[in-house]
Write a structure and sequence with these properties.
Layout (H helix, E strand, L loop, with lengths): L1 H7 L5 H15 L18 H30 L1 H6 L13 H29 L11 H15 L2 H20 L4 H23 L4 H21 L11 H9 L3 H9 L5 H23 L10 E2 L2 E2 L3 H10 L1 H10 L4 H20 L4
Antiparallel strand pairs: 1-2
Length: 353
């Protein structure tokens, strides 16, 4: 029973949400995940510890938002999945549609409440009328920025409510308005960056541009995913545009990180992975790849549109690594690379599409 719930949640893609939060935190903190040396109300609390708690709440909140969206997707697509032979747990009767829908609502509500709790937590330790006492100009600038985020914490609540609205809109509209719903899905992923930024330190131009490129990538990926149930691609303008969109994260990363040595190997990995996947998609169009999931070629699972979409989903942590590498943040970028290597293995256990 648990396995069916995990399949419905598409749990294998959940770590990509965590790397989104990590990247957004790095962008929001302008290259510093922790700001040591800050004293609040004479209690000796550190801003770094506060940021760590808020990051944890952001990961929990946005994980629930993702899971709730996946549950709602299966509940809403119940009839369509049955008609088109999609072997989803709800459509196959392995999970109750009513229970899955209830779980979706619960996850979305809890996600919003966690952001509310994060804002209240910040305001408890960094009230608007509190002036932090610092010993250096650098620490002072960092503290003032973080203190401002506490005073403006409530926009994060509005942002997560807006994200929940986007999730619900996508789940109800994606079978009827392909292009618009692809943009909605991109907006959902971009919303992870924006909500995290607002929860931590506010929005910077670089974070907003990074969110925009993530929106473009996910929009392109979602357009390509439309062909999965057909096991073929129609090389029209929309698909060509989608293929162009998925390369967009390189632009922002290179714009900000040309002087960062770490960026170049990450960029090459991203470029090579995406080019390899796109080539396989084009081979599918020309009939040069086996399309049946059950067929085996050279002892490996056959290449399908679904497996290619899964590969593009696995590249989401690479986008986060690109953004972190553009800041010269070695350890967080390496953490994203580890997740990138992990996702294809998780897809063997639970399909990501």
């Amino acid at each position: 029973m648990l396995k069916f719930w995990l399949i419905s949640a598409r749990i294998s893609n959940l770590p990509t949400v965590w790397t989104n939060v990590l990247a957004a935190a790095g962008l929001a903190q302008a290259g510093a995940l922790l700001v040591p040396g800050l004293e609040l109300n004479g209690a000796g609390a550190e801003a770094g510890s506060l940021i760590g708690v808020v990051m944890l709440l952001a990961m929990l909140s946005l994980s629930l938002m993702y899971i709730g969206g996946m549950f709602l997707n299966d509940a809403v697509d119940y009839h369509w999945d049955q008609q088109h032979g999609k072997e989803r747990p709800v459509a196959c009767g392995l999970l109750s549609r009513r229970y899955v829908a209830a779980a979706a609502v619960l996850c979305l509500v809890l996600s919003i409440l966690l952001v509310v709790s994060a804002v209240l937590y910040q305001q408890q330790y960094l009230p608007a009328d509190t002036q932090a006492t610092l010993t250096s100009a650098h620490e002072s600038a960092a503290s003032v920025a973080y203190d401002n985020s506490a005073m403006t914490g409530w926009p994060a609540v509005l942002a997560v409510v807006g994200l929940a609205v986007l999730v619900v809109m996508y789940d109800f509209l994606h079978k009827h308005y392909p292009l618009f719903s692809a943009m909605l899905m991109g907006g959902c992923r971009a919303g992870v960056y924006i909500v995290t930024g607002l929860m931590l330190q506010g929005l910077s131009l670089q974070l907003l541009l990074a969110a925009l490129t993530l929106l473009a990538y996910i929009t392109g990926l979602t357009l390509l995913a439309r062909a999965e149930h057909q096991q073929s691609l129609l090389l029209g303008r929309s698909v060509i545009g989608a293929l162009l969109l998925i390369f967009s994260p390189l632009i922002i990363a290179l714009l900000y990180g040309l002087d960062q040595p770490l960026l170049w190997p990450v960029a090459l990995i991203f470029l090579g992975w995406v080019l390899r996947t796109v080539r396989r998609l084009l081979n599918l169009q020309r009939g040069e790849e086996i399309r049946n999931d059950e067929e085996i070629r050279n002892g490996q699972k056959a290449v399908t549109v679904g497996s290619c979409i899964g590969a593009l989903l696995a590249a989401i942590p690479l986008i986060d690594a690109l953004m972190l590498a553009s800041l010269g943040m070695l350890i967080p970028a390496l953490a994203c690379l580890v997740v990138f290597l992990l996702i294809p293995q998780l897809h063997k256990w639970v399909s990501g599409t």
